[in-house]
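Q: Protein A?
A:
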Amino acid sequence: MTNSTKNTASNGSEAGVRARPAQPAVIIQATKGWSSLQLRAVWQYRELLYFMVWRDVKVRYKQTALGVLWVILQPVISMLVFSGLFGVLLNAPSNGAPYPVFVYAGLLPWNYFAGSLARSGTSLVDSRNLITKVYFPRLTVPLSGVLAGLVDFAAGFIVLVVLMLLYGIVPTTAVVLLPAFLLLAMLTALGFGLWLSALNVRYRDIGYVIPFLIQIWLYVTPVIYSVSLIPEQYQFLLGLNPMTSVVAGFRWALLGQAPAAQSSSLWVFGLSILTMFVVLISGLAFFSRTERTFADII
């Protein structure tokens, strides 16, 4: 090969190298404060969030004999048991509404909250293989646990519509506020889920505490009984439980029961909103402070 040929080949190869587009560099740095939550990155990774939600739904009912029917059977069976015990045997008051519809209107948002809290509370530990190998906003993990429950909620809501038709109940115009009460349940589940998921990374006892916590929480929320059973001087404590206003709001919007009948006065509802925001903001702050250690200790 002549020198001119060698020069031509070398010049061609150098031109080819120069012609290659520069590959973008991704630099991952530890951040502090609220910026570590990377809320903008959560939106950029929305497709990943969608696949996490879809994976959660598929895994839950994969290789089950009844499949998605469990979404309907669980609240219906609970409604029948509570109706027999409290509605028939104990004759618990339901503020003029048929007790099966009364209790199911409370079970619908409660089951969504309980399922979302259980999934988000253990979500980080359940996704430890993904967290230790792939970079993505960690906030998407508990968030996917909250969003996945919307599928169950939609199926359960169809059952509630059927019950209302059977009993001839027509919702009031307040039904347009139903998404607001659902949003309150979502933010409450996310706030507590952030706390529990971050704590569960360091203390695996949290995984055993969550089912017990949900069971106790059910009985301090007016799901299977009316708030009128609570003495008036203690009803202000209901405002410390955001799910009280969620359950009362659902019954008000769907069954036409006035908030006062559910002891859901404005100040109690306002206290519930304040409690929810305190838990959510503190949960976000705690999650952002401990997020950079998840991959090391999970």
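Q: Protein B?
A:
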Amino acid sequence: MSLSFVFLLFVAYSFIGWVSEVAYCSVIERRFVNRGFLGGPLCPVYGFGGLLVIFLLEPFSGNVFYLFAMAIVVTSFLEYVTGWALETIFRTKWWDYSHYKFNIHGRVCLLNSLLFGGMSVVAVRLVHPAIVSALARVPPAGQSAAAAVLAAVIGVDLALTLKTLVALREKIAGLAAFVENFRESVDVREWFNEHDLSGSLARIRARASLDSSEATQRLLARFETLLFRSSGMARIVRAFPSIDRRIARKKTDSLNARRSGDALDYFLEFFAASFVGVLMESAWCLATTGAFESRTGLLYGMLNPLYGLGAVLMTLALSRLGKRRELTVLLLAAILGGAFQFLCGFAQERLFGSISWDYAGSLANVGGRTNLLVSLLWGVSGLLWVRDARPILLGFGDRLRGRVGKSIFVVLAVAVALNCAV
């Protein structure tokens, strides 16, 4: 598969994503909304997402449920990283799912993740074969020529878009400074909000229709000139009406900041993660194979020490990073989790001469002991563990720090140690 062919796939999925976004948002807004990041009919994040889903999840294309679940992980990971990057580079929040249930910092939410999962299944099973078949009819020379032309056009579009985005912050600051001159004649607090530009424009227009004074009319004209002097600026504001420069920085979780952990905390984390890991794996096997398998890693009890040790590793390495470095936690958890699983597989092979998992046939695997997709799963799990699950677990553990609670933990610790030894 040539580079030109891959690039044309990227363009195709970027266009399909643009059509999907426009259709979805236009139905909700009851008007045409160009939701493209670029000026042209393309959403690059869908292009990258489409390539990731097609090439990364190809081994799972035969099982719809497996494909759906893995697509949720991959697309959510991409959307989260993209949202973080845009906020970090442009100091602007482009979308916010904070008002949806089960969201992570407003960058991803369960509803959208499920929609992306469904779209990915359709893409892999139906859309991708059709696109490949259509492109295969174009001679290689034609593919190269088309890719070159499209790359040049997209490059120019991207340069103009980036120029507009860089100027957006200065524009908003200029508007804020400009309206200060009218505070005595016009109460700008009634309509101007630098974090809601479309709403501000609508409110000042409504005021101008009722107030024909020179100050109000000058204010409206100046506002429109500053904000919509370029078509690119107007498009960005219309496409992302909820664009917000207030990048919220949540405080570090008090339980993570209060203490690094003691023996009781670490054992509670190990025990809980070992138990939940067995439940997750057993449920996964039941859903994907239709048969129940006991995925325990010990002879007695529903415990898998691999997950317990992984949770403690995430705690030791990442808990001090806090909530303000979520992308760092995500990426480090992916690296640590992949490396940890590789070492566990290597140790099992050398010590016991057995293999519990083998990813040799998957994309981007390392010795069959881990692969890119598994590492992404470790990354997502590590982020959820450090940010959400661990604080809740520690809060529960604090209630069991009495004499009876500690006695129970001691008995459990001894039992688990004996179980591991056997």
